Amino acid sequence: MTTEQNIATVKSTYEAFKRGDITAMLAIMNEDVSWITPGQRELIPFAGQFKGRAAVAKCFESLEASEVVLTFEPHEFVAEGDSVVAFVHYWAHAKATGKTYEGEGVHFFQLRNGKVASFREFFDPALAASAHVAGYDVKAKSIDPIHCKFCN
Asked: What CATH number has the domain bearing residue 35?
């Protein structure tokens, strides 16, 4: 696959996500896909390491159950070979607390045979935790991102 085709595959994944079509999104992934979202599941319900389409589906079920994504905008793509990096802006509402959080993230995709083989997300999990956990205020804490106990 060319880098342009790989970027198009990642964009198709995002388009399916934005439509709420998780079935279509999963169809763009290899059966043994690896999916990593930083953070601890006790704080961020959809965080963790997921292996295989069925596990990734559970990740998105947790996401849908725990928050409403208000804005999700990929705005830049960089590709080399079978790797694609996307820069995204997000804004979400945590259902349990009613709080929102907003930030920038980086997504790293590796593709194999035209499908997503692995995904790794980079964002500030303390922002998400502050929205999902009542009483957790990221502004009140000094967070060292290298040694953050809430990061994997």
From this structure: 3.10.450.50
Helix (H), strand (E) at residue 22: helix 22-27
Q: Note down the domain range covering 44.
A: 3-140
pLDDT, position 139: 59
Q: Is 88 a domain residue?
A: yes
In a domain, 146, yes or no: no
Q: CA-CA distance, 70 to 53, in Å (whole number)?
A: 25
CB 117 within 8 A of CB 111: yes
Q: What is the rounded CA–CA span in Å between residue 43 and residue 152?
A: 12
- Residues lower than pLDDT 50 in the chain: 140-152
Strand ordering across the sheet containing 48-51: 48-51, 29-37, 115-122, 100-112, 83-94, 67-80
Give the pair of three-digit tokens for residue 145: 């991102």
**What pLDDT, in 10s, does the model give residues 102-133?**
999 999 999 999 999 999 999 999 999 999 99
CA nearest to 108, candidates 87, 129, 93:
87
Q: Is residue 145 part of a domain?
A: no
